[in-house]
Write a structure and sequence with these properties.
This protein is an alpha/beta fold. It contains 14 helices and 19 strands.
């Protein structure tokens, strides 16, 4: 896209203010601004015109496709044999969502670089790669590892992992790609400028990972390697197990097209998303979307009907992901505090919400699948999220769980 083409498209969408400071920029900055404009999905702006409300949920019913901890123990040898065979035949890849920053932990670096060690350095990235290495050692097979970064943390992430020699992982099996960005706008749909030559944008939500991977040419690479299943996981759970042979084996044996690791809710009111059926298809219902009756509903065994909370560790069939990529993934419009440049060229950090960001979510990808297996794991062994510096789901609670699991800190 050149300047003339940029002007034309901005006029079409009423966004010519994005070029207000164009003449004040250096040649390099001008080129970068035009590049940003060329990457904007302006169709998102149409969503705020009288369509701010989220699409209503369909009919929610309990999920029946489940494998409990007891079921896994009873079928351990068979599940593991199937999973190990799939891994040895290069059918499984792991994909790390690592676009976040450690802001809530008091860090201005990528979240995966955060040091949770006490007597020695122990990084979040290090723990995740160590867990994946356990499978490599068990199967004798390097698992393709795709790492999705963001525009803000890509350089730091790559440099840090290279400096640490990828914590022993084979560099030849690691690929990085940057998550697609979505524009941030005011309540009238005007896209904000963050600086004279920088458009305000943010990552397009955790549901945007596949389209970002596809645009980077890595879906094609994965398929050429023989990959049939992608295990998606988030950066902040330091105890989780990825490319887990038992998880993969249970999914393949049951003929499932997707699967989710889950934990049994600690209490009916626990604030977690729960796997369920929506209009007969797999879905995830947020805790605040459950009625009081559903929250406490019991099944025929006297257990919670909506029992299994998701931990953002999913297994997807890559062919289904490609097929569904041609369908529109729901875009969620979220009110946020957005830093912007005002009319006088001052950068403002608002104290309250001042506009919209656009996000796609993994939970909507689950609903596009034909079926989904709820695979129960032991909470204390596989769920240690680090979302806060102190308190619940914090560095402190994760450290305690790591110690219980024999990890030296």
């Amino acid at each position: 896209m050149n300047y003339t083409e940029a002007v034309k498209i901005l006029e079409e969408y009423g966004q010519t203010h994005l070029l207000k400071y164009y003449d004040e920029l250096s040649s390099k900055e001008q080129d970068e601004l035009i590049k940003q404009i060329s990457e904007i999905d302006f169709s998102l702006l149409k969503l705020i015109k009288g369509e701010k409300n989220e699409k209503a949920k369909g009919v929610i019913t309990p999920l029946t496709d489940t494998v409990s901890i007891k079921d896994i123990e009873n079928n351990k040898e068979e599940f593991e044999a199937i999973g190990v065979d799939a891994i040895k035949n290069n059918k499984v890849a792991a994909l790390l969502l690592a676009g976040g920053m450690g802001t809530r932990l008091g860090s201005d670096k990528p979240k995966g670089m955060y040091n949770i060690g006490i007597t020695k350095d122990v990084y979040i990235f290090e723990r995740l790669i160590s867990n994946l290495m356990d499978v490599v050692e068990k199967t004798g097979t390097w698992i393709p590892l795709f790492i999705m970064t963001s525009d803000k943390n890509d350089k730091d992430t790559r440099e840090f992992l290279k400096e640490k020699n990828y914590f022993g992982y084979n560099e030849d099996y690691i690929d990085f790609f940057i998550q697609e960005m979505a524009p941030a706008c005011d309540y009238d749909g005007k896209i904000y400028l963050e600086g004279k030559g920088k458009i305000s944008a943010s990552p397009n939500g955790n549901g945007g990972w596949f389209i970002s991977m596809e645009k980077a040419g890595l879906v094609k690479k994965a398929k050429e390697m023989g990959v049939e299943y992608i295990n998606l996981f988030a950066v902040d759970n330091v105890c989780q197990r990825m490319a887990d042979p038992l998880f993969i084996g249970a999914t393949i044996k049951g003929g499932y097209r997707s699967a989710s690791k889950v934990v049994a809710k600690a209490r009916p009111e626990e604030k977690v998303g729960v796997l369920c059926l929506e209009d007969g298809k797999p879905s995830i219902v947020e805790y605040y979307e459950l009625s009081e009756e559903m929250t406490y509903q019991k099944d025929e065994n006297g257990e919670l009907a909506y029992k299994y909370g998701v931990i953002l560790n999913y297994l997807f069939n890559i062919d289904d992901l490609e097929k569904n990529a041609n369908e529109d993934l729901t875009v969620h419009i979220v009110e946020k505090k957005i830093k912007y440049m005002d009319e006088d060229g001052n950068v403002i950090k608002p104290e309250k919400e001042n506009g919209y960001k656009f996000e796609t979510l993994v939970l909507d990808m689950i609903h596009m699948m034909d079926n989904c297996l709820a695979y129960e794991v032991v909470r204390e062994k596989e769920f240690a999220p680090i979302k806060n510096k102190e308190g619940n789901d914090s560095v402190e609670t994760a450290r305690e769980l790591l110690k219980i699991n024999g990890v030296e800190l």
